[in-house]
Amino acid sequence: MFCIFIYILFSPTQVSEGKSLPKSMYETNHSLVTEFALLGLCSSKELQPFLFAIFLLLYTGILLGNFLIILTVTSDPHLHTPMYFLLANLSFTDMCLVSLTNPKMISDLLKEHKTISFKGCLAQIFFLHLFGGGEMVLLVSMAYDLYVAICKPLHYMTIMSHHVCIMLVIIEWCIGLIHTLNQLAFTVNLPFCGPNHVDCFCCDLRLVTKLACIDTYVISLVVAVNSGFLSMGSFVLLVISYTMILITVRERSSASMAKAHSMLTAHIMVVMLFFGPCIFISAWPFRSNSVDKVLAVFYAICTPFLNPVIYTLRNKEVKAAMSKLKSTYLKPSQVSAVLRNILFLGIN
Fold first, then answer.
1. Under a CB-based contact definition with an 8 Å cutoff, are residues 63 and 95 in contact?
2. Sheet architecture: strand order including 35-38
3. At a CB cut-off of 8 Å and minimum separation 6, what does 61 contact?
4. CA angle 8–10–14, rounded 5-degree value
5. Which pLDDT does position 191 carry in this prediction?
6. 3-state DSSP assignment of residue 128
7. How far apart are CA 181 and CA 22, in angstroms?
8. Which of 47, 175, 200, 302 could join 298 via S-S bond, C-beta 3.0 to 4.6 A?
9. Which of helix, strand or coil describes residue 347?
C-alpha cells in the first residue's frame, strides 16, 4: 500500500517525448496493443530443438519430484509434522510457479512466432508475483520452524501447533496477494500503443512496463522498491534466523546436533538458490539481456528442480518414507501388470 501511495503522489502526468498519446486515450486507458511478442531464449533455430528436449525433461522432473514429496508427506503418518507440512506447501508452490512459464517457454521453442495476449500477460504477471512472493514468506516460515525445533525443542509442539501452521500458510498467501496486487496496479492501467516485443520467454513486469507510451521511470522505481522490500526483508529475516540457529548448534554437542546441522545446510542451500538470482536480478545494474535470461532460466527451472533433490538427499526420514512408499505401491508384480496392460492396449 505504501508503494501505491508513492505512485499516486509522483505519478507522471506527461507523456514522454517521442511517445505522444491522445488525451482521450490516456484518460480512458484504452490500449492499442492486444498481444505481446516474446523473443524467447535464443534465436538459433538449430539450438531450439535441443533446448526443447532439455527443458521438457527438467520440467517433467520438477513436477514428478515435487509431486512425490507431496505424496510422501501426505501418505506417511510419521511425516505429519509442521516441518514436512511446510515442505509439502513449498513443493506445491514450486509446481505452480514452474507451470506458469515453463509450458509456454517449452512450446515456444518450436514456434516461429511467440506471442501472448495482453490479458494473458497480465495474468502471468499476477500469478508469478503471487506465488513468488508467497514462496519468500514460506521460506521464512520454514526458517522459523527450524529455529523453534533447534533452539526451543521442549516447546516445539506448543509453539508450532496445527493452527499456527495453518496461519503461516494463510499469511504466505495473503502477503503474496498484497504484493502482486501492488505490482499489477502499476501495469494494468498503463497505455500500450507502440512496440510490443518483450526480450524474454515470459512477461517480465520490468520489461513490459518499459513498453508503455508514457514515461515509466517513477513506476519502474516503485515496482523495484516493492519487490526489493519483500525480497530483502525476507532475506534479512532468514539471515537472522539462521545466525541464531548456528549459534545454538555450535554451543551444543556435535552428536545431538548432527541432524540439525544437516537440515540447516539443506535450508541454506535452498534459500541461496532462490534468493541469489532474485536479488541479483533486482539489484545489479550492469547486466545485459543475455545475463537476465540466464538468471531467469535458473530461477524458473533449476531452483524448483533442485529443491526436492536437496531436501530428499539430505533427509533420512523422507528417504525412508519414499522407500516405504515405493515398496507399497511399486511392487514388481504391480509394475509388471501395468506394463502388460500398456502393451496390450498398444497392440490393440
1. yes
2. 115-117, 35-38, 197-198
3. 305
4. 105
5. 86
6. helix
7. 28
8. 302
9. helix
CA of residue 322 relative to chain centroid, distance: 25
In the predicted model, residues of the chain with pLDDT beneath 50 are 1-30, 286, 335, 338-339, 342, 345-348
| Amino acid at position 217, single letter | Y
- At what angle are helices 2-10 and 217-251 packed, to 10 degrees? 160
Residue 147 three-state SS: helix
pLDDT given at position 257: 63
Tell me the per-residue pLDDT of 223-252, one tens digit each, with 9 for 90 and over.
888 888 888 888 889 989 888 888 887 777
State the cell numbers at 247. 549459534
Q: Which three cell numbers stand for residue 322?
A: 519414499
CA distances from 214 to 18, 117, 187, 198, 220 (A): 10, 21, 12, 17, 12
Report long-range pairs for 309-312 (Cβ below 8 Å, ≥24 apart). Answer: 309/65, 310/266, 310/269, 310/270, 311/69, 311/87, 311/266, 311/270, 312/65, 312/69
Calculate the alpha carbon distances from 124 to 101, 201, 213 in Å. Answer: 8, 12, 21
Give me the amino acid identity at 251. Answer: E
Show contacts of 46-55: CB within 8 Å, 24+ apart.
48/109, 48/110, 49/109, 49/110, 51/109, 52/106, 52/109, 52/110, 55/102, 55/105, 55/106, 55/109, 55/301
Q: Tell me the three state secondary structure of residue 37.
A: strand
User: What is the Cα–Cα distance from 26 to 98, expressed in whole angstroms?
Assistant: 35
Residues facing 116 on adjacent strands: 36
Per-residue model confidence (pLDDT) at position 24: 37
Give the length of the chain. 348
